[in-house]
Structure formats: C-alpha cells, structure tokens
Amino acid sequence: MAVRHRLIKRSPEDVWEVLSDPERYGDWVVGTSRAEHDEGQWPRVGAALRYEIEIGPLTLHNRTVVRRSEPTAVLELEADSGPLGTARIAMELRPWGRHTLLIFDEHPLRGPGGALHNGLLDVAQQVRHRAMLGRLARVCEDAGSSSAGADAGRLRQHGT
C-alpha cells in the first residue's frame, strides 16, 4: 500500500481546480501522455479519461473512472491498466491553514496487480508518488502565482 502526503501552498479550492481539469492530467501524473476525455463530465462520478502511460519501452493504454467525488475534499479514482488490473487512487484534500494537505493513497484493487503486489512494488510506487505530488504542487502553486499576479496587475491598473 502506498500512502503519501504533500503540503500544497494553495487552498483546497485551487488544488481541486487543477484536479478537475482533465487537460492538466498529464501535467502532474508521471508518465502520462495523450490524456483525453472518454465519457461523462470530469470529475463527476462515472466520468472517465483515457491515456497512455509509458514505462520504459512499454506503453500501457489506461482508463481512469471517477468513483467518488466530493468537490474540494475527496477524489477517488479507479485506474484500469488493462492486463495489469486496476488500482484504487484516493486523494483527500484537507485545509491546512491557508494551504492544503493532500493525502494520496493508491493500492491494487483487481487483477494481477494485487496478486503480484509486494514491498518492492511499494517502494517503486513511493518514488513515483513523490515525483507526482511534487509536480501537482508545482502546477497548483504556479497557477496560483499566475492568477495572483494577474489580479495584482488588474488592481494597479484600476487604481485600487
């Protein structure tokens, strides 16, 4: 089981905005390429994305479905990696002062991934999750900096 956490220096609403944007999925999910809408309205329950994950010479064609969605608080996904099986991915966003404590929990759910699950795979997941949460934090914090700078510019322009 791979559980990690990361303090993101943005509000839960700002973090949720990034998680809610399917076009930004590849910006923070390590290894993802060519993410595209599959069905439903992301991140509502039942909505899905299709994408590819490249692991060395191997390319997996994955699909992720929203299983639980509580805006600004909880997003739970089921990632289907075809022959490798599925995984449950849960993200909990907790207000932490003006920031967000994001708790990320991923574990095998169905198929061979669960049967082959071991400590070595957990270590590999921890490395991937550390990189992924770092990328998510940068995307959220950079987006916040851009909008904060734009807001400040607008205020100066209008003399307030």
Textual characterization of the structure:
It is a single chain. This protein is α+β, with helices and mostly antiparallel strands and 160 residues long. The protein is 34% helix and 41% strand. It is built from four helices and seven strands. It has helices at residues 12-19, 25-28, 112-115, 119-157; strands spanning 2-8, 32-39, 48-55, 58-70, 74-80, 86-96, 99-110. Strands 1-7-6-5-4-3-2 form a seven-stranded antiparallel β-sheet. It is globular, with a radius of gyration of 17 Å.
State Rg: 17 Å
DSSP summary, beta strand count: 7
Structural class: alpha+beta
Give the strand content.
35-45%
Topology:
Layout: E1 2-8, H1 12-19, H2 25-28, E2 32-39, E3 48-55, E4 58-70, E5 74-80, E6 86-96, E7 99-110, H3 112-115, H4 119-157
Antiparallel strand pairs: 1-7, 2-3, 3-4, 4-5, 5-6, 6-7
Write a brief caption for the model.
By secondary structure, the chain is of the alpha+beta class. It has 4 helices and 7 strands.
Question: Can you tag this structure with a few keywords?
Answer:
about 160 residues, alpha+beta, globular
